[in-house]
Design goal:
The protein is mostly helical. It contains six helices and three strands; from the N terminus they run H-H-H-H-E-E-H-H-E. It has a three-stranded antiparallel sheet with strand order 2-1-3.
Length: about 260
């Protein structure tokens, strides 16, 4: 079953049903959209809250992608080449593949801000600390992945012929998601649709986003999570045109949101 798909189970007689989750990079964008729906309106769309499990699987995907592309050093291809014969990785030489990667990285940046359990005052601190450390590590790997992509590829706007870096496109996508998420949360509350934790209100969410993600200034005009910008063409950089540095831009990412307690 594809992610973000409403479903129910019907049996002709009493039965015990067992299910599970399998996340794939080929459908990661729908998975991210489903995670947002769970955060905003879990009491309407599900009978079980499983944000911790979802974030665990997404962190594992980041670790795997970092191993394949950065540590293993997969060969860079252009958009006309066939993707490397590696299972469960996006073709990062295409714009759709780059968007798949960036969607996953956005979830790593948001961290506890879209984990409803983190808004609970009674959340177990010992366990929460270990989970925050795990997510901080995954966020670091996701930033390293974007730096690696930026050293190998660049975006070309086919209409204006202007070039754009990974960080400029990622920042626009993140801004779009934040704007839409706040709007969605406000609209849900106006229609008496609630999430898992009463303490997680639109006002609290917006305050935390402004406090911990000030670099991602967002416009209130966005009303959707799907990419709303230009459809760029991905070009491979010439060899030696951009050095890959294993360092994270502290100017662009001044805060680590996973070190906070998401509480009102």
């Amino acid at each position: 079953m594809r992610p973000n798909t409403p479903h129910f189970v019907v049996t002709p007689e009493s039965a015990i049903c067992h299910g599970g989750h399998f996340y794939a990079m080929s459908t990661i964008q729908d998975t991210v959209f489903g995670l947002y729906h769970m955060f905003v309106a879990s009491t309407r769309v599900t009978n079980t809250e499983h944000s911790e499990d979802a974030h665990l699987l997404l962190r594992r995907m980041v670790v795997y992608l970092h191993y394949v592309f950065v540590k293993r050093g997969s060969k860079v291809t252009d958009s006309t080449s066939k993707p490397p014969p590696i299972s469960h990785v996006p073709n990062l030489s295409t714009f759709e593949g780059a968007l798949d990667l960036f969607m996953l990285c956005i979830i790593m940046e948001l961290g506890d801000l879209i984990n409803p359990l983190a808004y609970k005052k009674t959340y177990r601190q010992a366990r929460h600390h270990s989970l925050r450390v795990c997510t901080i590590h995954a966020r670091g790997l996701s930033r390293d992945l974007r730096n690696w992509w930026d050293s190998c590829y660049i975006f070309l706007d086919p209409e204006t012929r202007m070039l754009h870096t990974a960080e400029s496109v990622f920042k626009n996508l993140l801004s779009q998601h934040l704007s839409t998420l706040v709007f969605y949360k406000k609209m849900a509350e106006e229609n008496d649709v609630r999430g898992e934790v009463p303490e997680c209100t639109a006002k609290v969410l917006q305050s935390l986003l402004q406090k911990y993600l000030p670099y991602a200034l967002y416009s209130p005009c966005h009303r959707g999570f799907e990419w709303g910008g230009a459809m760029y063409v991905v070009q491979a950089r010439a060899p030696g045109s951009s050095a890959y540095m294993r360092s994270w831009n502290s100017a662009f990412f001044p805060h680590d949101v996973l070190t906070i307690h998401c509480r009102p």
